[in-house]
Every structure is written in structure tokens, then in C-alpha cells.
Design goal:
The chain has about 100 residues and is an alpha+beta fold. The protein has one domain (about 10-90): Alpha-Beta Plaits, CATH 3.30.70. It has 2 helices and 4 strands; from the N terminus they run βαββαβ. It has helices at about 20-40, 70-80; strands spanning about 10-15, 45-55, 60-65, 85-90. A hairpin with a 4-residue loop joins strand 2 and strand 3 (about 60-65). Helix 1 crosses helix 2 (about 70-80). The longest helix has 20 residues, at about 20-40. The mean pLDDT is about 85.
């Protein structure tokens, strides 16, 4: 990506395979990942961050970073996942506290 830094917001794309099948959820994940990669390669400010499969629920949660929610929706549509939701997300983690050298 030529050293270009992507700034923007985080979005969770959530989908469930119907009928329930872990294999279908994995294929849907691959389709979304390919769509995000293609858009990013074409110059859209979007990047893939991570994905989690919830196998008991046949559901997948994908984290994408983009400047505009519309770009994430476009990736979802290119992946042919029209029922997947796109929701803004933000990290709750804080940076670690500095170590003081003592252990309690």
C-alpha cells in the first residue's frame, strides 16, 4: 500500500450464514476480505483489521477501518452480503500503564 497510512473510523460488519453453516460463514468472510482488499488496492481509504467467527452461532464479526461508512457498505455489497449489518465501533482498551519496577 505504498506506506500510506489509513486514518478513519472502525466498523464492524456482522453477518450470519443461513442456513446455519460454519463453512458458509467462512466463505462469506473471504468474500468480504477480498472486496475490502480490492477497494484498498484501487485507492479507497479502507483496510481489513480482523475477523472473529462465532461457530456455535454461525456468525462472523469483521473489523474494517475506513474514512467513510459508505466505503464499508460498498465492500459489503461487492461481497454480495446484503443482509450484513455495518456498525460504527470503537476500542475500549486503554494504553498500558507504565511499569513502576515493583511488584505487588
Amino acid at each position: 500500500m505504498g506506506g500510506r497510512r489509513h486514518q478513519g473510523e472502525f466498523f464492524v460488519v456482522q453477518f450470519r450464514s443461513c442456513p446455519p453453516s460454519v463453512g458458509d460463514a467462512v466463505e462469506m468472510h473471504h468474500a468480504l476480505h477480498r472486496a475490502v482488499t480490492r477497494l484498498g488496492s484501487a485507492g479507497t481509504a479502507i483496510r481489513w483489521c480482523a475477523a472473529w467467527l462465532l461457530p456455535d452461532d454461525c456468525r462472523c464479526l469483521c473489523l474494517v477501518q475506513a474514512e467513510r461508512e459508505a466505503d464499508v457498505v460498498l465492500a459489503r455489497d461487492l461481497a454480495a452480503l446484503p443482509t450484513a449489518s455495518v456498525l460504527p465501533a470503537r476500542a475500549l482498551d486503554r494504553p498500558p500503564l507504565p511499569r513502576t519496577g515493583s511488584r505487588s
